[in-house]
């Protein structure tokens, strides 16, 4: 999710920002721009580089832009549900792009339908537009404040009218959102600092939890519609979701993950021949583990750079083919070795089993796994596309059973305290609900993620 | 390049072998199969995964197959020049796939045209088919021997008739070629062992330099048409070209590259804060350097996994954009650091300059580079797609000038002796011509690589 | 526009009906089906044969279907504006496909926006859905009657809920709509009888002006929400728009057009060598003219069957290329001849000029043109995609000036009386507004066709 | 088939010529050009308008061009077999495009393979290139004459070197070939005059049977390598194959076909209500029949202009669907009528049966058919893609049996004398082999059309 304000190359900057944020959503991509008078719109299913071309970018003139990349979820992955959402109402345009999940959207939607509103999408973000339409006889800021205070849940958002860019972060600040200055004037807001780095913007500060930043008439004004409350940063951004070269919640992701590996080495020392990640998710914790433990780091499996869209079925005899076609075990290296794998997390545990087996088939004598976060036992209602409790392996099984299931000689998870220590912050700063079920904003009774589609980023 | 003999899934095995060998050629891919009676053929421009589908594979029945992936060269990249080449002559089919370069093909071609032969492609491999056609009144083995002894240069080849698979390696053995046993019976020949690993074949042995292996009537027979000579293995396969999980010329590539890093650390110790590769080419030497020197390994830049076909132009202000869009410098990590980069080789030096500058822009204080081979000063006539002498940076400049050009604080190349030592073999085993101009097979006077297109693999 | 009720192959029958109705709209095509519980939807830009495949049809199960093909208009030709429109409101589905134009939609839309409704499309049909949503606390029939009586203009419509098909024709009956019985049970409604013929349905009767036919629980019930009024059939359907093999408003189109040619021969006898149409629009009137006058019919120009999407520019020297590439003048036939062209209508007059010149260049001595309707001098507000008054050549120029502009030796238009006589009906039965400016339903003051996009069929 | 000489827009003129000749081959299209030094080549499967774009035309510089469109035959429809064929031999380019069939190509090919030649295609045209290559130590004209005198059969050809265009017509002149002058200088040769008309070239004369026209150094020279013999023009060009606006063998096709209809009316008068063609093949004979007999012409079925690539299966109940989807019977017109159909020819008789039945189902009381040529009882060896004797319905059945098979009330074929009379020429001028088995050039014993693919045009 990103927004560009007051730059003649707004669409181009939005494009590159989305390109840098591609890891946050691969299902669809969209950009809306305005030249002060008219609003332009391009969105489609697919990766940023596939959705946009010089030709489509040239159809997006203007000096304001918002952009969005969306998750691949099974339920409602179609062109209608791409973001940003754009409407024209009473001759004015309003666009919104949203990262996170509202937990009371079903209730809000029911009320709106009762008043005759027709919904086009299954995304919770559409509720926001209808609330704005119903308040549209009030001045814009009043309508905005009224709408925002009706929302519950996680919502880092960018909104846009013909002449205004608005950046919004919910009072708990679940999802990151930062502000930067573009090299030749103008501003950028983006989910992660890596977007700022790519376009050579200078990081200014994070949008504060509960802040609404309004960019209009070349001025930036902040309003705070909610009473203050404690922050609930999503620690899973640091563990897995954010890009390692980003600074999230004020801390560098690479270094946080490396410290997780170092603390893991202090909590659990294994007698192994070498440490390895499965590329590339555990790379940084693996480096931390290796440096702290003195056990050498090696690349026991090598990522295939040409993995494409192969849909060719293997022959019956080829075991663990789907793993081996992407990750090539270095047979002559693994033979007879005691291997320590560092993983960032285990969610469903579906690929782990055949990954471990492929190491054993290549000759590994022992396979141990260390995970740089605690067991993920509870669903997320705030925008991480976690499976339901039934599919979370750590919600179904104890650690030794998981080790058995994966075919490991041993399995260890980082402690909750160790994980938080690695961030340099405190337990109170974070939402840790997926580890400890302590949900900062209770979801609506009828809340069910699938009904509304996944989050967007 | 690969061949499958005596397996009902021949096309599928060939497909997966090519998939594993994709790094050896990304321009085009092709497979020819035979069911003993009829020969089938599918080839096109593009990656293996794009050229083939279940549908196209189903059009390739039979239990013999040969496959080929081809390099992207500028001169003659078109559908006509895809391999394997297949002809029908006097009602019999003959197909050939070739890795390497003939150095006397122009001369051979001139003679054939004089006799009325018409050439369809600009590939040297076509010469072989015409020679076979002209000798076609002789028994097949005789025609083959007569043809092969006319050829000079580097040629690992697979040939196929309706009922026979032939694997050929030139007497110097420039390019690798190995033989394996398929899990449920049948044989495979392939350029690298990584193809055997993917299809779970068991490695038997390398095809020997000067060996012609004929697979027919479920029997494997070897003939040796040339007098014995010293081997000239291409050391650049070990340095750069082959996949790290392959064993090439009997040695593991990963471990060889790691030893190159270790020897590099003994030859040149730099006082730096950390060692890093540019992903992924210098990964293995970087591990070796780090372990030998004790200087920690870090990932100072991170490969973008979503690099696609973006052709969107950056704005004028974005410096070194093409590097940064692929490789993300970890700004908060590089800041103020003395960085040691390990590279596998420097050919043209074109990308190096902006890579180094992107590190400095991200805050690096010093940038040193160590290269895990000697300066590459001479063109290759045997199948590595090296630029001409004019474009080889080390042929044009001395090492300090190269360092200056790349913006480095220091630059060091591994010694020729160090490189060979890392392989565990001797100088006599290898072709080192690109480093020392000692060409084992003198090229034809009129030889000019571009005239015939690049090598295939 | 078509609807299928109570047949297991509903989507397939809708597909073939749209295929037969393709001449009524080439911009986009869509089908919505229901199996009683769930509603399915496929639509896209393009021709029917391109939008649908066996695969997409298989995604449209159920025994109720409505389908639509849409005009190509310049203003708002995009995927959002394809029909049928489908919404889900309070858990119930409602779909609508509309042929014609509402003349008070801007007013209705303004009122709805005031109440907070958000519009997704620029089509007048969407107004109908919002009106239904606002009346959704009433029983369905009541809501429907309330909604319909608010509409003014031309609207032949099919509507669909999960279990009901509704066919609607406005009280003036501007656009045709007929009812048929499917060969194996079930019913079909369609804009023209040619759709019934293709699927071998038996024609039952036309939906009457002002009739609302409700198909539910395997019963057909009619209600009549409006007070009776005189009919205003669009005579341009007979002149040009409908397919010649259809019966429209109870009369056969082919024979009507042939009679127009016969009456034309009585009104204006030209001394020419032969009569010819430009294929294929004037074919039937040309036959009538030839038979009545005794002047032989010939094909002076021949339609090129392979006209494709050629965008290749001709060289400068090639005159009237765009005509000649589609219509090949038979040079050796035209040479020295006095040619009588029969046209069905002249709207903009843009292609006529070069068509006439291509005949002269092929050697024609005289070129006369007779048109089988009066001059079209006024815009249509009821669904024929006429240009604005400014672009209607007959609104700008008198007949002799048009003849001069087109390069004709003479030009004659059929009289209004002659045209109506050819139908066998009376002036009172028809809307003749495009000829005589007598508009049966006065348009809204703010009505402007472009604001709402063109009609659909 | 066409050739352009001495015009800077050679490729563009070739493109438009092929566009006009599209009816002669829809399988593939290709153009080769030369700018005097280098030769350029573009060809692909598909229609002319799909194969070429402004972009591809711009890759065809030069002022000489030859072009070709090819038939769709079942045997060998692939990219390899597209024409023009282009080779480079001893550094010189030679391209050939061929319309017709050689009847001794298998023999010639066997001899060439014996000498070591490798064939890439299954087209008889390739034989010509190999013969030229084997004679390439002789001066070009000598090599050409030597090659041509070895060929037997039907061959209208254009050949091209870097600086020369050659147009060749076999001594019997089976296939047409004409010469024209381009509007701004330069020459054109083409299979039919309709290509000249489209590019506004002036017709000069036909290339004479047995003539070889050499265009070089801006001079046109003719040589005549064969002894004179009687001509054998293919009368099927006049009956069916050529475009009606072309003049073929010096006579206009439209008028010839109309005269066939007139003579048909004299030979066989039917008592019917109206005459109709199935659009569009019998249009011209139908006009002749109507004018001569005084029975009115009507369009009893109407061609659907939107017939696309529909592959949707009809439901079981839909009879004769494939006919009705293309040709719409005008039900209210056919009801109770006695219909006289005029057809140009009946080859396999496969579509006729359901065409006739669709008329009966639409209500026709009687259906009579008259064919404007005699029964086609014998295969063609000279380039018309006739089926084998087994598939020719008139070779298998007598006329009354054919009438019964097609469901007709009566069937009549034009007499051989009547057909020839319509041309204004004599029996001696034509090849009438498909009607009377009198083959002017006896085919090779081993000749089998399928072995070599179909003809090209």
From TrEMBL, chains A, B, C, D:
Superkingdom as given in the UniProt entry: Bacteria
Catalytic EC class: transferase
Record SUPFAM superfamilies: N-terminal nucleophile aminohydrolases (Ntn hydrolases), PRTase-like
Binding sites annotated in the UniProt record for [4Fe-4S] cluster: 234, 380, 431, 434
Keyword Iron: yes
PROSITE patterns the UniProt entry points to: GATASE_TYPE_2
Enzyme Commission number(s) of this protein: 2.4.2.14
Ribosomal protein keyword on record: no
Pathway: Purine metabolism; IMP biosynthesis via de novo pathway; N(1)-(5-phospho-D-ribosyl)glycinamide from 5-phospho-alpha-D-ribose 1-diphosphate: step 1/2
Pfam families with a match to the protein in the record: GATase_7
Record-linked CDD domains: GPATase_N (cd00715), PRTases_typeI (cd06223)
Glutamine amidotransferase type-2 domain mapped to chain residues: 2-218
Cofactor note: Binds 1 [4Fe-4S] cluster per subunit.
Cited InterPro entries: GATase_2_dom (IPR017932), Ntn_hydrolases_N (IPR029055), PRTase-like (IPR029057), PRTase_dom (IPR000836), PurF (IPR005854), PurF_N (IPR035584)
Active site residues of this protein: 2
Record field: catalytic activity: 5-phospho-beta-D-ribosylamine + L-glutamate + diphosphate = 5-phospho-alpha-D-ribose 1-diphosphate + L-glutamine + H2O
Keyword field: 4Fe-4S, Glutamine amidotransferase, Glycosyltransferase, Iron, Iron-sulfur, Metal-binding, Purine biosynthesis, Transferase
Cofactors that this protein relies on: [4Fe-4S] cluster
PANTHER family: AMIDOPHOSPHORIBOSYLTRANSFERASE
Task of the protein: Catalyzes the formation of phosphoribosylamine from phosphoribosylpyrophosphate (PRPP) and glutamine.
Family under the similarity heading: In the C-terminal section; belongs to the purine/pyrimidine phosphoribosyltransferase family.
Protein name: Amidophosphoribosyltransferase
